[in-house]
Amino acid sequence: MEKSITYFEKPGEENTAAVIEVVKIRALELGIKEVVVASTSGKTGVAMAEVLQDEDINLIVVTHQYGSNGEGKWDMESQYVSRLNELGVEIVSQSHMFSGIEKSLSKETGGTSRIEIVADTLRKLFGKGFKVAAEVVIMAADSGALSMEGEVIAVGGTAYGADVACVVKPAHSNNFYGLQIREIICMPRDK
Question: Span 146-168, mean pLDDT?
Answer without folding.
Answer: 97
